[in-house]
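This section describes the prediction task in plain terms. A model, or a person checking by hand, is given the sequence of a single protein chain and must write out its three-dimensional structure as a string of tokens. No templates, partner chains or ligands are provided. The sample shown here is typical of the held-out split.
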Amino acid sequence: MQMATRDDLDQYLIAPDPAHHRLTCAVVGRDQDGAETQISVVEERPLTIFLNSQEIVTAMTIGDYPEYLALGFLSNQGMLQPGETIRGIDYDEDLETVVVRTDGQTTYEEKLKKKTRTSGCAVGTVFGDMMEGLEGLVLPRTTLRTSWLYALSAKINRTPSLYLEAGAIHGTVLCHQDQPLVYMEDVGRHNAVDKIAGWMLSKGATAEDKILYTTGRLTSEMVIKTAMMGIPVLASRSGFTAWGVEIAREVGLTLVGRLRGRRFICLSGEERLVRDADPATVPDEGKKNGRKGASL
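The expected answer:
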């Protein structure tokens, strides 16, 4: 597989750092023939998130960008009100905690009474009503060019990443047209999305002109998080769940899955697709391609 060029990597505002010493470790084992072998495996560590003085959740994560993860998690859970002032975000590496401090009153007490374990890897959790905040939500009818999809898929798939280094991880990428901007990875796709949400919130980034790309399945949780972030397009190498498709159609989210080489399937928002690229001119992926997104 062709790896990313310097021009590809320069487009990213945040790119994976597979060489970071805290994200992987070397483990020695034996292969099918009994020969000793050493491989890189992804590290997992707990991160406890506080909202002011209230402990909210302990998440298993790879440990990078804890402030973005905490901020995005609380925002996507509806525990931060729109326009609420964030007074500070304090991360203590030794205690493995991050505290988000606000000026306003929060509603986390009621939300904590109801928890839903989602279908996400590493077991995601949604507090409160999963559908809360979606009533009446209609996303911008942003057009999506197929040339953008093909370009994004090619660039992201050849970007050096923890997945290519060690596997056992999901990636989520915030994109604008055919440019990948922020690439986050984690053991759970929900964590990777929350990091994107936290980055967007902290930077005041616009959502209506963005595309969210993920290696994971297009489940109800992924669709809801994307819609709550205001992003009108969600694309994945992997497949769909029926409820994810239903919610996407209700809120006007363009949903594209099984994006591999020249192939893809659009199950929501077909009328917003601009087919400006001839699939026959796009290199297809063989079954032995280095990324196995559909099996994640």
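For orientation: The two ends are 19 Å apart (CA to CA).
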